[in-house]
Amino acid sequence: MSRPGLSRLKLAAADPEDLQILSARLQDAVVKLKNFIWLPKKRRFAAVVNRLAWEDGGKTRVRSGLHFDGVLKVQSSKVKLGAGEAVVSVLAVGFTPNKSEEGGGEDPGGVIEIVLAGGGALRLTVECIDAELADMSGPWAARGTPDHEAADGP
């Protein structure tokens, strides 16, 4: 399946505004929990995701690599990283900056939160925002697309 006029996506995020763009591209990506990896010695958190290609009308999925650098700590809530074949869906990626001390200037660090469907979340304590999302495959037909309006209730 080709995407005329569309090339493989490659995005970098270095500030909260960039991260919002990256979050939009990750919305409804599905990930096996075993495909999240935390490399503490390299201060890197990475994942291989199957993202819904919203730029293609949400009709296709693309395998993409995602990584965050400068990661100091990883915490999970309602999710067990490395839990084999279990699949989660990404809802959003957000950032909460550290509170800077008075007169200390800006602190680029904070917490990146990857919000997952079903109430789960991953929290990455980072030195600064340093993320990249890059497509690694061509597209394939999505089996279905999420219906966010139906999920919001009546």
In short:
The protein contains 2 helices and 11 strands. The protein has 154 residues and is mainly β.
Give a description of the structure.
By secondary structure, the chain is mainly beta. It has one domain (10-136). The protein is 10% helix and 44% strand. It contains two helices and eleven strands. Strand 4 (44-52) and strand 5 form a beta hairpin. The longest helix has 11 residues, at 16-26.
Count all strands and give the number. 11
Q: Could you report the average pLDDT, rounded to the nearest whole number?
A: 89
Describe the largest sheet: 6 strands, antiparallel
Radius of gyration: 16 Å
The tally of domains stands at: 1
**Class based on secondary structure composition and strand pairing:** mainly beta
What does the secondary structure layout of this molecule look like, with pairings?
Layout: E1 10-13, H1 16-26, E2 30-32, E3 36-39, E4 44-52, E5 60-69, E6 71-77, E7 87-97, E8 110-116, E9 121-126, E10 131-135, E11 140-141, H2 148-151
Antiparallel strand pairs: 1-10, 2-7, 3-4, 4-5, 5-10, 5-11, 6-9, 7-8, 8-9
Tag the structure with descriptive keywords.
about 150 residues, mainly beta, six-stranded antiparallel beta sheet, five-stranded antiparallel beta sheet, 2 helices, disordered C terminus
